[in-house]
């Protein structure tokens, strides 16, 4: 009898905690992260007790902050307080190149700075840029390789299924 009562209580608590998280934006806020890290247009999301999340957007899109961010159709990672690690599905533009964002973190919220790890460098942004979910402009499938709105260079990382190696291809666009 006591075991059944404990199971019912645990089930009730789990339902209550999952009901209090109504959106991925609530999850971000609860973990000390700004809501605007993800754009408007989240179709569905999953978040587990280990912090792993998956977000499915209506469409792949770009959002403009101090620089441009690209969001794939699916974004995933692991959320802990003040950071998102093992991130996939977000790329940041630097000059004419696109780099995958591997991690996002807010070290000291009062500093007003958020850091994006793009592999070669940590980009700093004002935390205030990410207060609200941004509008996101749809991109065509041919744009996803890095050619965005008149860019002069295409940088695309592709992997061969045979060699599993990454190749950096550069292509100059003729005007």
TrEMBL record:
PANTHER family: T31J12.3 PROTEIN-RELATED, TRANSMEMBRANE PROTEIN. It comes from the Eukaryota. Coiled coil: none annotated. Pfam families: DUF538. This is DUF538 domain-containing protein. SUPFAM superfamilies: At5g01610-like. Residues 1-19 form the signal peptide. Keywords: Signal. The keyword Flavoprotein does not apply. The keyword Signal applies.
């Amino acid at each position: 009898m006591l075991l059944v009562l404990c199971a019912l209580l645990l089930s009730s608590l789990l339902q209550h905690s999952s009901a209090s998280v109504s959106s991925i934006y609530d999850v971000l806020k609860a973990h000390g992260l700004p809501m605007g890290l993800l754009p408007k247009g989240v179709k569905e999301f999953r978040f587990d007790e280990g912090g792993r999340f998956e977000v499915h957007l209506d469409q792949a899109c770009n959002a403009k902050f101090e620089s441009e961010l690209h969001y794939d159709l699916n974004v995933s990672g692991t959320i802990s307080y003040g950071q998102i690690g093992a991130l996939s599905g977000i790329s940041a533009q630097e000059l004419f190149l696109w780099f995958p964002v591997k991690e996002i973190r807010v070290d000291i919220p009062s500093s007003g700075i958020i850091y994006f790890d793009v592999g070669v460098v940590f980009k700093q942004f004002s935390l205030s840029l990410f207060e609200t979910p941004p509008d996101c402009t749809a991109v065509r499938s041919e744009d996803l390789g890095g050619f965005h709105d008149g860019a002069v260079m295409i940088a695309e990382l592709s992997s061969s299924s045979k060699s599993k190696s990454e190749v950096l291809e550069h292509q100059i666009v003729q005007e």
